[in-house]
């Protein structure tokens, strides 16, 4: 291995620069901190795998991977129509952090299925790489003195944001994906603010470290400070650095193939063993054999409110219209092939939804001759996080956006939103309100 010459240095680096800081401390404490039994001593860390090459390679993989996860994540936030405050997003003062928000398009119709599939699947697959990277630099966490200079102190503070931020984002992301909204409602602001804390640390870290990482990978050349990751007293190696990278890569690959199927769909869906909504499609009979997010029973929606007495109330500047399901079926019916793509990363293949265009409903309440505005959609559901959602005018005006009554040629099942549910192209699943009871067309 290229570092072999370096690792036989007799004097641990901390011992060399220790006295400046340790002088005022009692000599007993000084001895304790530099003893090889203390993690503050470089000699405590004995894995022969640690070194700048190993760390740099993992770092470059994360540079590319986390950049993609971050961009798709910020885009995912924009997809929630957060500018329709406070309907969709109660995040107070997104202010400056919302600088990049844009109106989410309805084209291509699989847009959110792609961006969120990449965000979740790649995020999960990077976990082994992230853990290996953190493991590779853990001796630095304990290194003394805590700050060698002002610059070094600032770098360590940025690492706090970076490491704290990345652990927080991965933890909240995984909990949300695996446990079905552990933080109902509050997940969005937590994950969003956490992302910006992390990104601040990420940018500083890249500015300080990326040039070195690329140099180490290109030429293997090390400057003195970069040797601090190399153990001064390594144990005999049982696994080469390449072998260790292979283990990390195999872990990532395993996560990838056991989760990607939940968003790629088709016959790959059965390989999504890791995904809670992945492999098993509910078999609800005709029209209902695709993923359900929340069942009707789980949110307290029953046959009483969804039976013959159900009515849809539509409000707009032209007045109020109240419609039964038969009235809606009497209006012009249209069919759109659209998927449901959930924030959790799973998505369905295209389903064939049939119902009334949202813009035709707007026309009933004052928008027959002027273009439709935004709409506020409310569900029968009283409990849980998703009782209402705001859609933008762009979404309302798209001819594929429906208040669906049927799917794949059959009446909606109760779990998929019977008597009527919204379906909009390219939007996150949560915009597709089920068991709709009221729609208000107005500028939100
Ligand atoms: N009323 C209501 N509508 C809802 C939800 C809900 O919990 N309640 N879940 C939303 C979410 S998060 C998704 S992903 C889709 C899932 O639709 P499906 O259960 O028909 O697959 O419905 C959306 N509409
Ligand atoms: Mo969802």
Overall description:
There is one protein chain. This protein is of the alpha+beta class and about 450 residues long. It has two domains: about 50-265, no CATH class; about 295-440, Oxidoreductase, molybdopterin-binding domain (Sulfite Oxidase, Chain A, domain 2, Alpha-Beta Complex), CATH 3.90.420.10. It is about 40% helix and about 10% strand. The strands form two sheets. It has a five-stranded mixed β-sheet with strand order 2-1-10-5-6. Strands 3, 4, 7, 8 and 9 form a five-stranded antiparallel β-sheet that branches. A hairpin with a 2-residue loop joins strand 1 and strand 2. The longest helix has about 35 residues, at about 185-220. About 40% of the residues are buried. The model is unreliable at about 1-10 (pLDDT under 50). The structure holds ligand MTE and molybdenum atom (MO). Molybdenum atom binds near residues 342, 343 and 344.
């Amino acid at each position: 291995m290229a570092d072999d010459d370096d690792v036989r240095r007799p004097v641990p680096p901390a011992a060399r620069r220790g006295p400046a800081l340790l002088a005022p401390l009692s000599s007993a404490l000084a001895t304790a901190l530099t003893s090889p039994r203390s993690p503050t001593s470089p000699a405590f860390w004995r894995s022969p795998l640690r070194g700048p090459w190993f760390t740099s390679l993992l770092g470059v993989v994360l540079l590319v991977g986390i950049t993609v996860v971050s961009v798709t994540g910020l885009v995912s936030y924009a997809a929630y129509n957060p500018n329709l405050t406070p309907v969709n997003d109660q995040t107070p003062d997104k202010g400056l952090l919302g600088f990049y928000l844009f109106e989410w398009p309805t084209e291509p119709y699989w847009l959110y299925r792609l961006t969120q599939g990449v965000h979740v699947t790649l995020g999960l697959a990077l976990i082994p790489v992230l853990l290996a990277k953190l493991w590779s630099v853990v001796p630095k966490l304990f290194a003394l003195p805590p700050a060698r200079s002002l610059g070094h102190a600032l770098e360590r503070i940025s690492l706090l944001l970076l490491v704290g931020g990345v652990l927080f984002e991965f933890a909240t992301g995984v909990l949300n994906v695996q446990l079905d909204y552990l933080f109902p409602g509050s997940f969005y602001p937590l994950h969003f603010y956490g992302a910006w804390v992390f990104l601040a640390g990420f940018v500083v870290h890249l500015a300080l470290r990326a040039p070195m990482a690329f140099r180490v990978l290109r030429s293997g050349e090390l400057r003195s400070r970069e040797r601090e990751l190399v153990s001064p007293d390594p144990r005999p190696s049982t696994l080469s650095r390449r072998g260790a990278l292979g283990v990390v890569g195999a872990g990532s690959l395993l996560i990838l193939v056991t989760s990607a199927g939940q968003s790629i769909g088709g016959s790959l869906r059965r390989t999504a063993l890791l995904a809670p909504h992945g492999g098993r499609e509910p078999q609800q009979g005709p029209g209902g054999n695709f993923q359900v997010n929340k069942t009707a029973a789980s949110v307290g929606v029953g046959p009483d409110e969804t039976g013959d007495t159900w009515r849809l109330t539509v409000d707009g500047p032209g007045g109020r219209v109240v419609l039964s399901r038969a009235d809606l079926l009497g209006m012009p019916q249209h069919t759109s092939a659209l998927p449901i793509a959930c924030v959790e990363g799973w998505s369905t293949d295209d389903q064939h939804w049939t119902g009334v265009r949202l813009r035709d409903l707007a026309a009933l309440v004052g928008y027959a001759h002027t273009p439709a505005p935004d709409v506020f959609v409310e569900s029968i559901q009283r409990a849980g996080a998703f009782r209402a959602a705001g859609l933008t005018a762009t979404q309302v005006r798209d001819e594929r956006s429906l208040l669906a009554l049927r799917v794949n040629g059959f009446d909606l099942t109760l779990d998929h939103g019977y008597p009527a549910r919204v379906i909009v192209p390219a939007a996150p699943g949560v915009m597709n309100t089920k068991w709709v009871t009221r729609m208000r067309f107005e500028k939100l």
